[in-house]
Amino acid sequence: MTWLAKLYQTFEDHSHVMGQFEKKANDREYALIPVSHTTQSAHIEVHLDQNGNFVSGKVVNKSEGSTIIPCTEASSSRTSTPVPHALFDKLVYVAGDYSHYCGEAKGTPHPDYMNQLRDWCESSAAHPKVKSVYSYLSKGTLMADLIREKVLWVDEQGKLLDKWTPKMEEQYGEKPDIFKVIASDQSAAFVRFAVQVPGESEARLWRDSSVQQSFIEFYEMNLAELDLCYVLGERLPYADKHASRIRNSGDKSKLISANDTSGFTFRGRFRSSRDAATISYEVSQKAHNALKWLVERQGFTVDGRVFLVWGTGRLDLPDPFHDTFALYQDEEDHAAGDLTHKEFAGRIRRAINGYRYDGDYQSEVIIMILDAATPGRMSIVYFRDLNKELFLNRLQNWHESCSWLHRYRKDADNRYISFIGAPATRDIAFAAYGPRASDKIIKDLMERMLPSIVDGRKIPVDIVRSAVQRASNPVGMEDWEWEKTLSITCALVNKTYEKEGLEVSLDIHNTNRDYLFGRMLAIADVLERRALGRDERRATNAIRYMNAFAQRPGRTWSIIQTNLQPYQARMGTDARYYNSLLDEVGAQLKPEDYTDKPLSGLYLLGFYSQRNDLYTSKKDKEAVAAEPDHDYEQGDN
Prior knowledge:
Elements: H1 2-13, E1 22-23, E2 29-30, E3 37-41, E4 44-49, E5 54-59, E6 66-70, H2 73-76, E7 89-90, H3 91-94, H4 98-102, H5 109-122, H6 128-137, H7 142-148, H8 166-172, H9 178-181, E8 190-196, H10 209-220, E9 226-228, E10 235-237, H11 273-276, H12 281-298, E11 300-302, E12 305-311, H13 325-328, H14 341-356, E13 364-374, E14 377-387, H15 388-401, E15 404-410, E16 416-421, H16 425-433, H17 439-454, H18 461-471, H19 479-496, H20 513-532, H21 541-544, H22 546-551, H23 553-571, H24 576-587, H25 602-615, H26 618-626
Parallel strand pairs: 4-8
Antiparallel strand pairs: 1-2, 3-6, 4-5, 7-8, 9-10, 11-12, 12-13, 13-14, 15-16
């Protein structure tokens, strides 16, 4: 019940923003929904006056379609059985003349809708604007009015068109708006209402908090049966059905469901689902509505799997799935060219410390991953709640220890920039499985990486091994793909061999066999590249033999060295520096290390650091060496 309690508390803490719509980057609207309400994408908007007369109708733009609708327990979880919502609904429920244009509907959706709406209007919690809607719908002319307004379209027989064909476009002109916003036929259109009252600024009933409160009071009158709520520990009206539409408005999957009374769900264990656990209606509504809001606000989805991180005090927290650049991207200078490793560590600490010192020392961080194996059942595949200070400490350690120099990020001007830090989990999937990896593989990797980020566990060996193998095979990739794969793999290897304390800057005193072999390969690559010149783009011998070199370094190095001789001769005296550097690095290898024993991922770090050092100009080296060290102290925990 922990997840329900955390979500319930999140709703209570942010109830002051309830019903206030916000916009996402794609202009889609979302809001924290009140109790006894849900969201639905509306297609048609009908305006009435206070006397219940039709004023106008229009098709709703997709970006403005998100609508807060009053709902009952049954309607919020309805599937194929017709169960009406309380106020806004599809044409089959709200239109009294539906059968004239679409044929007879299954069951009695419209009478059921009108009876429920009448009960609301006759209750002590009735609202005058809702009475206006009831008065209008009682006339049974909704579809006729919408057809007259050219919101809905009919054929020659006066029946609603199923679809819009190119032939109709030639006959009637431009495609009507209703066919641009609805995927199925017009009869499935969802309708919302606005009532214009002189002197009142808010006509939209889905934005009117007084209408929302009116329905909450009306529906609470019907919640009579009490039971023990396992979340709050109090006797409250219990929830018989629980909400769906958690990931999006079309999502039918539920986190809590117990509708299999004829199978083996309860047999031999419980007489009913209430014997297993009972959750109050209030807790169920608030927890699910808070979850929907958080998913829309700061969650992201990969192949149907939702990844969500939030704080019980402060909602916004550094996302463990993002890279280090996302932490300090608001700083004026992003470039890594002039900054040392210590300075980047300082940036990470400053960015994370901004989340530490907000006065809320007791808050927690919740990490939740949701997925649905079937269309009707959703599960929490990962759940973690931990102290915020502990979370930030572990996240800081991840960004500092799984770090390397990367050059694949772009700034606002679409220019490539450099940063030192940890890669994003999606980019780790890119390095391990390539750019054509399916979303299913990506989402599984992202879930598997979480314990390494928030719990400090080792990165799964198969992920590191796969990335090393791909980075060792540059011939099979384009240059940009290999460079990105190489830097990400170096970060993973650096984390795996964390005790080695390696950095991007070249460690000339490191005598590790794999590191030295990597340095030699880099020197051979740069030497041949300099001999070929800028106009020659073909791969060097070092790059072509890299995969074989990783498997059999002793034998392959002899081949590379032989193939390197013509380029050494071509460069003449200009090759003297590289030749002496090769001799210097080779001399550090012990005779017993010069074998065909396969290299570990450490050779990639030696390769990257040596190549980066050779490509860094003498002027840049002197500038970095002359800079004083900056020591950034971590704040008290």
